[in-house]
Hints:
Blueprint: H1 7-21, H2 26-57, H3 63-89
Amino acid sequence: MFLFISGPEIVFVLFIVVLFFGSSKLPEIARGLAKGMNQIKSATNEIKHEIQKSAEDNGIDTSLASDVKKEIDKVKDDFDDLTGPIKRQL
């Protein structure tokens, strides 16, 4: 999901961006945004890796978090399976 923004809202924002910056600047803006997002993702992954490494070095069991996430995902899938027919009727 894209920050709870619908299709017409995205089109409107793109229209405003084209008005302000012009169509010739759009590829440059998109490259800059993509580069920034990649840097944020890379930094986030590095931080996660450092936390994981530090926890393992200090003898902290990190598998607990992944086990909890798996259980939450399983419950979520079960809930989605249960509510699927109800959502289709609405």
